[in-house]
Amino acid sequence: MTQKIIVLDRDGVINEDSDAFIKSAEEWVPVAGSIEAIKCLKEAGWIVAVATNQSGIKRGYYSHQTLSEMHQKFVDLLDGYTVDWISYAPYLTEDNSPARKPGTGMLQAIENRFGCSLANAPMVGDTMADINVALAKSMQPYLVRTGKGKRTLATGDSRLQNIPVYDNLHAVVEALLA
C-alpha cells in the first residue's frame, strides 16, 4: 500500500487566524477539532505536511525563534503524534518568492523530502492562495470555512466551483477517512 500524504495550511486551518497576525505561542490557538483530526490522520498512517506563508517574520511582527515556539506548542498539543514536515515562507507577496503560496516552492520541497508526487493528494486551506497552489500542483484542494474560508467563499471566485467545502479540518478528515 502506498502511504497517503496530505498538505495542510496552518493559520485558519490548524489554528485560529487573525488579520493582525498570530505573533506568539500564546496567540497560537488550535481550531476546535484540528488537533484531533491530525491525530486521526496519523493513526490511519498518513504523512501530514504543513505549508504556511509566514510574512509576519519579514514584516518584523515576530522572529524565526517565535515561529519555532508556535510550532513547538503545536507539536506538544499533538501529545506524542507527529507532523511529518512543516514548510514556511517568510516572504511578502511583492518578494515574488516561488516559496510563498500560491508559488509551488513549499510543495516542491515536500515532494523532494518524501520522494513522491503530490498530484491528486489532498490539500486543505482557507484562502485562494491555498486553492491556487493545490491546483497548480494537480492536487485535490479542500476549502474550510474556518479562518478566512467564509471570506474566500464570499468572493464567488469561479475556481471554487468544484472545490469541496467543509466546516473545518476535522470535517475534511472525517470525509477522507470514511
Automatic annotation (TrEMBL):
Lineage of the native species?
A: Bacteria, Pseudomonadati, Pseudomonadota, Gammaproteobacteria, Thiotrichales
Q: Does the keyword Kinase apply?
A: no
Q: This protein's superkingdom?
A: Bacteria
Quote the subcellular location field of this record.
Answer: Cytoplasm
Q: Which family does it belong to?
A: Belongs to the gmhB family.
Protein name per Swiss-Prot or TrEMBL: D,D-heptose 1,7-bisphosphate phosphatase
The protein's gene is named: gmhB
Q: What class of enzyme is it?
A: hydrolase
Decide whether keyword Metal-binding is in the record.
yes
Query: EC?
Result: 3.1.3.-
Q: Name one GO molecular function term.
A: D-glycero-beta-D-manno-heptose 1,7-bisphosphate 7-phosphatase activity
Keywords (A to Z) from UniProt? Carbohydrate metabolism, Cytoplasm, Hydrolase, Metal-binding
